[in-house]
């Protein structure tokens, strides 16, 4: 009896588990496939079971744990950079990429030996005349500092509201904070706060300078905004145009004064001209003598050559009579 009971139980179990004949790894149309546990599982037709490890989560197999690296020190500036810190040039490049600008261009400017100065150009993607040029006010003794200060100057004018001090390493963090304080003090126009900010920033800079000055590395700067040049080609052309207009206006003003004060031109007859000339020479002349020469209706012979004709015609246009012009020409030929 026990054997028959055992055999009957096994036959019923085999009939209750039909195989799935579908070929799709995820979908079943025959209805013999069990429910899919998760989206990471895939149906295995040979094993007649769902395979796979499911959705990979953080900490699952195949992922390695991140280990913090040691701080790196730059060779030129001797700046210690932690894994979460970035140089100003890297921050400027990331900002340009994020805003879909062209990559910033750094160019070394010729200066005195042992002194370095850089210019950074932030190209405009649409109009090259709107490219921004940033030049620090003075040269420094470290090449890395010169390049990074140019990038800091660009960041101060483009992103003054972003707290870059959280990611900047020293001494550029101190330079950034000092420049932002000076910028805020200038905008608020409060001399007391400006003096207080300058004092605090100078104290921070002095302490940072003492730490970095012995190694000859990069140092914090307190005059990043004083005398710095921030221009574009369009602004330079506009400034040049304004200077040209001011210069032309000055020339026109002087020319107007000269024309207003010039000697007046007087038109007179030949008779009056001769009387004035004789009086200026001190000669005694009578009106009778003047009337003898004032023969405007007297006819004169034609000129002998073209030169005589041209001279007499010019004298007649100046107010002389034809007879006076002939006598004047003849007197010069003696």
From TrEMBL:
Keywords: ATP-binding, Helicase, Hydrolase, Nucleotide-binding. Residues 192-212 have a biased composition (Low complexity). It comes from the Eukaryota. Residues 33-45, 236-251 have a biased composition (Basic and acidic residues). It holds the Pfam family DSRM_DHX29. Residues 86-191 form the ATP-dependent RNA helicase DHX29 DSRM-like domain. Residues 222-235 have a biased composition (Polar residues). Residues 1-21, 33-80, 185-251 are annotated as: Disordered. One of its GO terms (molecular function) is hydrolase activity. Signal peptide: none annotated. InterPro entries: DSRM_DHX29. This is ATP-dependent RNA helicase DHX29 DSRM-like domain-containing protein. It comes from Entomoneis paludosa.
């Amino acid at each position: 009896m026990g054997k028959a009971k055992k055999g009957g139980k096994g036959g019923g179990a085999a009939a209750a588990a039909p195989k799935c004949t579908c070929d799709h790894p995820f979908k079943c149309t025959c209805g013999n496939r069990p429910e899919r546990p998760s989206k990471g599982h895939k149906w295995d037709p040979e094993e007649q079971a769902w395979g796979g490890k499911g959705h990979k989560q953080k900490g699952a197999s195949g992922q390695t744990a991140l280990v913090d690296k040691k701080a790196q020190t730059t060779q030129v500036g001797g700046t210690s950079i932690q894994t979460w810190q970035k140089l100003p040039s890297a921050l400027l490049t990331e900002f340009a990429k994020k805003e879909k600008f062209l990559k910033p261009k750094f160019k070394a400017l010729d200066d005195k030996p042992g002194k370095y100065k850089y210019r950074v150009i932030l190209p405009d993607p649409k109009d090259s005349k709107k490219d921004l040029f940033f030049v620090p006010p003075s040269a420094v003794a470290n090449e890395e500092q010169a390049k990074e200060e140019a990038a800091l100057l660009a960041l101060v004018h483009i992103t003054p509201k972003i707290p870059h001090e959280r990611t900047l390493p020293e001494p550029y963090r101190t330079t950034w904070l000092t420049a932002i304080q000076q910028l805020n003090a200038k905008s608020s126009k409060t001399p007391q706060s400006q003096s207080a900010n300058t004092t605090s920033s100078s104290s921070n800079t002095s302490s940072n300078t003492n730490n970095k000055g012995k190694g000859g590395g990069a140092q914090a700067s307190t005059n990043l905004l004083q005398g710095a040049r921030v221009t574009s080609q369009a602004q330079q052309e506009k400034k040049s145009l304004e200077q040209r207009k001011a210069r032309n206006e000055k020339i026109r003003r002087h020319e107007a004064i000269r024309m207003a004060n010039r000697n007046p031109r007087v038109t007179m007859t030949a008779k009056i001209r001769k009387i004035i000339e004789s009086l200026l020479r001190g000669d005694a002349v009578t009106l009778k003598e003047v009337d003898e020469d004032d023969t405007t209706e007297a006819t004169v012979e034609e000129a002998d050559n073209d030169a005589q004709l041209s001279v007499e015609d010019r004298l007649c246009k100046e107010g002389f009579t034809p007879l006076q012009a002939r006598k004047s020409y003849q007197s010069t030929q003696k």
